Structure formats: C-alpha cells, structure tokens
Amino acid sequence: MTARTDPGNGTAPVRHRVGRFLRHNSLGLFFLVTFLIALVGQTVAGRAEFNNQLVADGLAPAGFAAYLTSSDFAVDVTENWQSEYLQFFLYIFGTVWLLQHGSPESKELHKAGPESDRDQLVGRHARPDSPRWAAHTDWRGLLYSRSLGLVMGSVFLLSWLTQSVTGVAAYNEQQLRQLQAPTSWPEYLSSADFWSRTLQNWQSELLAVASMAVLSIYLRQRGSPESKPVGASHSATGVEG
After folding, report:
1. What is the pLDDT of residue 91?
2. Which end of the chain is more exposed for a tag (fewer CB within 10 A), N or C?
C-alpha cells in the first residue's frame, strides 16, 4: 500500500527557513524597507516642490520619470548620502584612537589604537572560523583589516562627487530659467550653494554622533547593544548591554 503524503509537509521547512531568515536579518531588512519608504516619500514630495517651481517659472510640470532622471532629484539624494557615509567613516576611524570615558560607543580606555594581533585575531592568531584574509600578513591582511572604513570613505567620496556634478547641473538649470549665465563645475565647488548644501548635512550628522556618545554615558535603553546595561555605572566605558 502506497503511503499518502501530506502536501502541506513540504511547506513547513520553507516557512521555518523564511521565518529564521527574517528574524536573523530583521535589523538590516527593517532599515532597508524604511529607507525605500522614505525614498518614495521624498520622490512624491520632491516632485511636487519641483513642479511648483516650474509652474512659477512659467514651465510645464514634470512627470515622475522626468523628475527621477533630473539633476534636482539626484542632488537631493546624494547630498544626504554623502553626509551619512562621512559620519560612519569618521566614526569608524575616529574610534580607533579617540575615547569617551563612560560611553559604550567608546573602546575601553586602555585599548586606544589598532590593538595587538592577538586581540584582533589576525596573522598567526587567526582562528579556523576567521575570514580567510585575516590570516595573511601581506597586503591582503592590511587591506582587509581596514576594509570597512575604506569602503565607507569611498562611498562618501563618490557620493560627494556625484552631488557636486548633479548640483552644478541643477544650479545651472535654475540659472538658465532666470536668464542668467551658467557656471562651471570648478566655480560651483567654491559657490555658496554647494557648501550650504554640504555643511547643513555635515553639522547634523556630527551633532548626532556627539550626542549619542555623550548621552549614552548617563541614559540607558534596556536590551540595546548601543546602550550600557541599565544598572551599569556611569563611568563604565566600552560596556554594551
């Protein structure tokens, strides 16, 4: 007699794997989804603002496709991206050497610097489950040991470059609508428009990092690795909950 199979049995492992994937990656997925929602919201609001300006200048409003490929949209997006990646770049490299007594955002006070090979599990101290390049003592190990900061710095520079290129295009479009002469890219790099866009984002990101480093000395968030344990001393440094 042939055994009957339950067609639902095969779906249980799939649901389990999907559920485990979502749980294990919920932090990254949450911020990716909220990023996409915010980007869509910016597209809708940005297009409305863009069209208001076009109508005020006596021009026809732009559709979504035209707005998404416009320099105005590109410069608004990249000016935010470059400031965010600058924040992470400075934070990653800065926390190698700079300390904040009592903050979980800082290393312990005696660990300033790149630390020893033993502490970092590199070279002959690498473990079997260590990344492959961590065991190398040549350029591969040197590059991998700084790869996070280098990628963050590279994305920042690329975003800043893109902001400057799209920014001068958007600026010149506005100049032409007002029957004024366009400006060159080198001239735009020294313009008030470029630095106003840049610095207004930098100052907010730098203030946010400073606030997090200092406020986490005295304030707590139970269960968060960005906070010390609720009962930890204010003077405890480099301790995460």
Report:
1. 92
2. N
